[in-house]
């Protein structure tokens, strides 16, 4: 009997040590990303310099959509307010088999706003990723030098293209990632959870750029040189994966020339996107995002993914061991620091009051998504996909 208790005691000690080490590694990772966040300089908003005012980049804005009648008018309103010479940008919308009033919304808006000009195309499915098919079609039709992508449920700032132009001319980038956050919808608690979750992702994104180890970006605010996209064969290497049109493309640009990949660190270039309306939609969205993780080629991206997963698993396991509660408090604190940095940059502090309960729920949510995303199917926009 004594040997059984002795073995159990040893197992407990080993478990505590392993969990403690994993939490320490996680805290060091997030601390490193916080350092990277501060290292990355904020973008200037001074467009008065003669070089930048006289020289203009030409942009093709590519926007796939499927059943976005609810959001399209808000997007079109912001596109109509873009402060950039009309002759230097074009807007291409790609209809990915919408079955709602999306096309009608677009037609009605154009009839009432004569200034806005855009082209609408119908998607042609050729791969396992409808969105990448739509983007490829739009890029093939694009007449301008630079491609800018966003989503149909987004709202873009009026100086959006000016910030890209300034960044391109100042740093000679070929790929630029921009900031994204959620705007408030109607479900207060679910919105708060999504906003804080997304602020952590954006903080990690900015931090990784500050460390010169970018591993994440968002297709809702992305720009790249069309000629480089074509030279790198675009999405050809991963068009069998439903998502990842942003991250996998960035990895290709990083492999080609890491110094030409930049980030727009300013809330003036912030694109706002719609949160998911209910828990089921949120789970499907996160499953879609997580399903691509196993296809990452970047060792740093894999390391971060594994440490984040193990860190959250350790947070759950650590609840059973009072000896490491101080490490759980440290994890909560360092996570808050990264989120606070991002919320401050984006002027999105309102949801920070929900942080405590979100911090308690989030590890369980992360583990659940990590598990279910690697098995079975997920639904998105009325379609079923396999991992």
Give a structural overview:
The protein is of the alpha/beta class. It has a domain at 50-199 and 213-280: Alpha-Beta Complex (Spore Coat Polysaccharide Biosynthesis Protein SpsA, Chain A). It is built from 13 helices and 12 strands. The strands form 3 sheets. A 7-stranded mixed beta sheet has the order 3-2-1-4-8-6-9, with helices on both faces. A hairpin with a 2-residue loop joins strand 11 and strand 12 (383-386). The radius of gyration is 22 Å and the shape is globular. The model has no long low-confidence stretch (mean pLDDT 89).
What class would the helix/strand composition place it in? Answer: alpha/beta
Rg for CA atoms: 22 Å
Question: In what order do the strands lie side by side in the largest sheet?
Answer: 3-2-1-4-8-6-9
Give the tally of β-strands: 12
Taken in chain order, the helices and strands follow as HHEHEHEHEEHEEHEHHEEHHHHEE
Shape label: globular
CATH architecture of the domain at 50-199 and 213-280: Alpha-Beta Complex
> What is the CATH H-level superfamily of the domain at 50-199 and 213-280?
Spore Coat Polysaccharide Biosynthesis Protein SpsA, Chain A
Which oligomeric form is depicted? single chain
Overall helicity: 40-55%
| Distance from first to last alpha carbon | 48 Å
Which strand-content bin applies to the residues?
A: 5-15%
CATH class of the domain at 50-199 and 213-280: Alpha Beta
CATH fold description of the domain at 50-199 and 213-280: Spore Coat Polysaccharide Biosynthesis Protein SpsA, Chain A
Biggest β-sheet description? 7 strands, mixed
Total of DSSP H or I helical runs spanning 4+ residues: 13
- Mean pLDDT over all positions: 89
């Amino acid at each position: 009997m004594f040997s059984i208790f002795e073995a159990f005691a040893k197992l407990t000690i080993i478990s505590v040590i392993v969990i403690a080490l994993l939490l320490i590694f996680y805290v060091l990772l997030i601390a490193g990303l916080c350092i990277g966040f501060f290292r990355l300089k904020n973008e200037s908003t001074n467009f008065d310099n003669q070089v930048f005012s006289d020289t203009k980049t030409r942009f093709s804005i590519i926007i796939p959509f499927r059943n976005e009648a609810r959001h399209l008018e808000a997007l079109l309103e912001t596109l109509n307010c873009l402060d950039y010479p009309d002759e230097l940008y074009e807007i291409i919308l790609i209809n990915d088999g919408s079955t709602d009033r999306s096309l009608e919304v677009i037609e009605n808006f154009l009839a009432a706003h004569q200034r806005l000009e855009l082209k609408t195309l119908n998607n042609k499915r050729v791969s396992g990723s409808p969105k990448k098919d739509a983007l490829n079609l739009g890029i093939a039709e694009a007449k301008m030098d630079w491609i800018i992508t966003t989503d149909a449920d987004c709202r873009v700032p009026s100086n959006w293209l000016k910030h890209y132009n300034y960044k391109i001319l100042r740093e000679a980038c070929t790929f630029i990632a921009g900031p994204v956050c959620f705007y408030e919808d109607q479900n207060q608690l679910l919105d708060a959870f999504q906003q804080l979750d997304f602020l952590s992702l954006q903080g990690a994104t900015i931090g990784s750029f500050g460390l010169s180890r970018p591993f994440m970006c968002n297709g809702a605010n992305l720009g790249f040189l069309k000629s480089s996209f074509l030279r790198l064969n675009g999405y050809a290497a991963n068009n069998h994966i439903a998502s990842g049109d942003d991250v996998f493309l960035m990895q290709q640009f990083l492999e080609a020339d890491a110094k030409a990949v930049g980030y727009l660190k300013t809330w003036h270039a912030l694109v706002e996107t719609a949160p998911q309306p209910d828990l089921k939609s949120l789970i499907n969205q996160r499953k879609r995002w997580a399903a691509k993780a196993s296809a990452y080629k970047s060792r740093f991206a894999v390391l971060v993914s594994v440490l984040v997963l193990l860190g959250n698993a350790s947070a759950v396991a650590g609840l059973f061991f009072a000896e490491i509660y101080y490490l759980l408090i440290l994890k909560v604190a360092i996570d808050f620091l990264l989120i606070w940095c991002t919320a401050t940059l984006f002027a999105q502090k309102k949801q920070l009051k929900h942080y405590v309960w979100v911090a308690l729920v989030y590890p369980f949510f992360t583990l659940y998504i990590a598990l279910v995303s690697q098995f079975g199917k997920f639904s998105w926009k009325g379609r079923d996909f396999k991992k």
